[in-house]
Amino acid sequence: MNKMKKILAACLLAMPLLALTKPAAAELSVFACEPEWGALAKELGGDQVSVYNATTAFQDPHHIQARPSLIAKLRRADLLVCTGSQLEIGWLPVLLRQAGNTRVQPGQPGNFAATDFVTTLEKPVSVDRSQGDVHPGGNPHIQSDPRNMAKVAKALAATLAQIDGAHAADYAARYRDFDQRWQAAMQRWAQQAAPLRGVKVVVHHKAWVYLMDWLGMEEVATLEAKPGVPPSAAHLAEVLKQLKHQPAKMVIRAAYQEGRPDEWLSNHAHIPAVVLPFTVGGTDAAADLFGLYDDTIARLLKGAQ
Ligand SMILES: [Zn+2]
Questions:
Q1: How would you classify residue 45: left for phi > 0, otherwise alpha for psi between -120 and 50, otherwise beta?
Q2: Closest C-alpha among 16, 227, 66 to residue 219
Q3: What is the pLDDT of residues 4-22, one digit of tens each?
């Protein structure tokens, strides 16, 4: 078949499909601050939503530049889905101001913060910025525990139905289906992760407190002396010393984090440096929300061997 014929055949094949798809304008436009919320919105919204992820798994969600392209996307959004608890405090307020989109401003139904629907851990008694990136609402990195994801899913499905009432029944059905698959997956993960109970780890950033809580693992040290402050040589030496009488099985970091401090500790303490996806897209296997936890557990089990 020559090239022209091939194109023609492809067009003819595509035609009935095109006739079935809804016009783009009918979709609810979702702006997700982090990939895990974009993935969740897609699970729950299906064809009713178009999702834009503001960040990838290889960017530090604490520090994002408020680029014009992000502002343009937020201007057209019907729903903003973010972590909240001040994770995005360095960039989201600027975006919101510049976008001037009333639908997604704080207090509106189109402004959804995931941490509003879970119990956050590590809520500081007092907030002192000299202590680094300390978040007054508690540790924002809730996505490392799938039980949090279940709670956020329920709330997000309700929000989708509220904003797009015409498709409320679709969102409810999708949520029921997702929740069933999620509950089954959580049982499987709990079984697979049983050997991780009590395992001691060093973490790069205080980003895994919910994961530790979920799997019964223990964080014995952090490479960042203060959250968000890059590990110093002096602090690394201290951690190494600490490991002599309180050994750890591995040192873990997110896919976006610079790995040199981890590799240094790995070489000196003779423990593996483990990279976890942290969010959807952080590794090839973490292609969706289910893959995110499948791969996280697989990597932790390998590290703990
Ligand atoms: Zn953080």
A1: alpha
A2: 227
A3: 555 555 555 554 444 444 4
